[in-house]
């Protein structure tokens, strides 16, 4: 499962000074833009599920939310009658999924019309508008719609720009750049739930959402400040002569990347369930007392960002140590290892879940350990997968393919919502065992296909 990755020094994007841990300056601005954007996103998301259950679904509020009852009717037409918890989980999962579905269209918009930079700015503006509307109960669904569209324009295109900072063949450094990129992002994931969760608990839901909007404005300002250090836009020209046709090999590479992305749906669902049913587990069954203060359940989501940040320097040091000895795993091997770690994280939770099934309350150390292992598995596979797509996807459709990769997270979140409905019917131990099985199945599939896909995606 381990093969030597290329370690030959390859220059960064031409004309960009090396300044950020040996990486181009553009990485600094892209990473910090996403850090503030993720601070905003995770701060808002950490409140969303409990906000729906504890406020929007109360009898005095539900009728005032535009189209809310119609949405519930539509969902229950497909699923049958739902409890408030199950309906809230469905809404949360639809939102969490759709923000990873729209990057496909954001990538197409960038590749064909606007270019990556203008599309990112458009996305940031839409997200600011969405956060403003979250200050009002009535405009809740409109706000979610704008946030979904804005994230679609922003998410995949920033990731594509990170990959474009590096020349072809610079596989090892590109993968490490995406790990650094995600360390900055997870600084936002760490602080967002803490800041917005505490402010919402003290001052009310809408103050928490308002802070998320202000943070998004900061992200937009940082992106604009780094404009001259960003890679030039790559967009398909309208005339056929300027657009190179995809070859047969290009189409085989696209098919292989789509297959790798599809496999990722299973461990991705196991990972993201910690922010859905896992949050309900913490709220109802975990001792959250600390020095006489009850830690808000939403604030536990900050652990994901914390442990992702902690994992990055450890993994970069490990990979550099392996590279010096000619033993650094290739991208597909790193992805496969990540899936195994996520399977182990969920399998571990069978122990405390079994105790909860018997009526006990369990220590907060159990969800802390779950977040730690899940984060380690995520940093093994997700930045590596982004680097793989960025390197291997044909230039003509690079942003579109990056958007398609985020589609795996969309589908995973739909699966999370479906599986969260089993929280009230399965034992908690069986629930976590099911998710361990999903991630382990992906691990086994990757073992089977790693060699042929690895040969196809290798540098020509």
From TrEMBL:
Compartment(s) of residence: Cell membrane
One Pfam family named in its UniProt record: PTR2
Presence of the UniProt keyword Plastid in the record: no
Topological type in the membrane: Multi-pass membrane protein
Domain (Major facilitator superfamily (MFS) profile) ranges: 47-454
Domain of life where this protein originates: Bacteria
CDD domains: MFS_DtpA_like (cd17346)
TM regions (residue ranges): 87-106, 179-203, 209-230, 251-273, 293-319, 331-352, 364-382, 403-423, 429-450
Key words, A-Z: Cell membrane, Membrane, Peptide transport, Protein transport, Transmembrane, Transmembrane helix, Transport
NCBIfam families: yjdL_sub1_fam
Annotated protein name in UniProt: Peptide MFS transporter
Organism in which the protein naturally occurs: Sphingosinicella xenopeptidilytica
